[in-house]
Amino acid sequence: MVEDEGVLPYVYRVTKYDPADRDEHGHYTGAEDTVSDHGQVEGAYLQAIEAFASDTGVEHLAVREPHLPVPFVSFGLEPPMDDFELGGLFPTGPDGFHDGAEVSVATAMDLVRVMLRDGGIWCRLEVEGIFTVHVGWDQYMYIGSSRPCEAAVARTRALGLFPERIDASPYDFEAENEGPQRPADDEFWEHLRWSMQWNNSRALDEQYAHNAARWHRLTPDNIDTVRAGLAPRARLAIWPDLSTDIDAVLARLPAEGHIECVWQDRDGRMHSASADEDEFPDLGARLSGASAAMILSMYADVRVPLLAAVLPDGDGVVRARWEIDPTPSTRKWALLKTLHQGEIVTGRVTRIADFWVTFVDIGGFEAMINVPELSWRPFNHPSDVVAVGQEISAEILDVDPIRERVSLSLKALHEDPMPLLLGQIGQTAVGRVTKLVPFGVFVRIEEKENGFEGLVHNTELGDGYPDLQQLAVGDALPVKILDIDPTRRRITLSHRQAITADQNEPGA
Hints:
This protein is an alpha+beta fold. 17% of the residues lie in helices and 30% in strands. It is built from 9 helices and 24 strands. It has helices at residues 39-56, 105-116, 150-158, 186-195, 223-228, 246-251, 280-286, 328-336, 495-504; strands at residues 10-15, 60-67, 102-104, 122-127, 131-135, 141-145, 162-166, 202-209, 212-218, 235-239, 259-265, 270-275, 290-297, 307-310, 344-352, 358-361, 366-369, 391-400, 405-409, 428-437, 440-444, 453-457, 476-485, 490-494. It has a 7-stranded antiparallel beta sheet with strand order 3-2-4-5-6-1-7. Strands 17-16-15-18-19 form a 5-stranded antiparallel beta sheet, with no helix packed on it. A hairpin with a 4-residue loop joins β11 (259-265) and β12. The longest helix is centred in the first third of the chain and has 18 residues, at 39-56. It is elongated and about 120 Å long.
């Protein structure tokens, strides 16, 4: 799960605006231009960051929650930088601008410069629990530290800026909800492989920064290669495979609304584009060279992937602060993580399948009870033991997060009554015939509807029944209990020895 990073004790709002020039609402009313960086002020801001970093003892910072631009307008006097100057800041180029990327203080200041100039990119620069730099609107900058940094505060004032102590940066991360944060770990990829058994391909949406994503078409042959090339801490969404019927894809365009079209060209490259109803006619031309495509709604309530997860760090911890799409599979995963073998759960029977498996709702998830786990005693149908709508308690036998299955046992909560019969071995009783089979008859030896049954083999029927047709279900039959095996659930009976025992009794 996402780690709690806490609030730093010393936070300063550093601006070029004199606090005396604010109205009662805190809005600036002075003569400074609020939409321009004023190049000389930019240098002062950067020197202030350097001073605070030095006072705190920070040499490197981490990029958090990087945003790449959508089409934008630059309001700064300085022109926006080509390629947002990311190519020159990271050894691997713009791909190095990802959550968790570690940068030097000098590179961090270059990133701040781009943000001050409205270059289109944005990120938080942080050292967990020690230091933060956030750039806000109207040339406000927020610097947090674990130390008071008196020398840096004095240096900032000497630079002509106004540092003000505040409680917290308004750009501190705040989670929108407390939904489950599923890691894209080995278990996730194994689950994905398992799901691909029935459909050989999947579409993978890799969001490596806000407003920036790459699409991949997964197959069993390339899944490991794609996984190895994903950006650190990327958010992943798994979708059904693209369709090779391009005409059918275009026919599914809505009458109106905003959609994303994803397609693969004949060279295997993946593309995506968003469009509304005015641009739908152009999609046909764009897809003329596509080998496969799909249409996705841009509306969150219907845009639900099959799986969603976030790449964890090397230690398995998810530190990226993405909000995960609330997929049914993610909700199942979150519940499965709370369940453990041997735990007792309570649920309501939802259905009894044609193959006799009983399904139980245990809080939004259907667990199952296989036939052997319903009861220690014999029964003809699961409905003899449970009823749809009945609330029951059961023990968890197994939790399988890969196949999203939970196996329960109803009988595990009850003592096995068969061992109680062991004392009757060697005794005789009169039971009712319950079933005739080619190799003998089954006889119930307990006087109850679900009493235990034993087998009288043909060889133990005796001379009185050379033909099974002489017996019928419901007939009374004297039997001797030869053996009871609770483990194998077998009771061995003999009619022949029961008759012999009666004949050998004194006075017979």
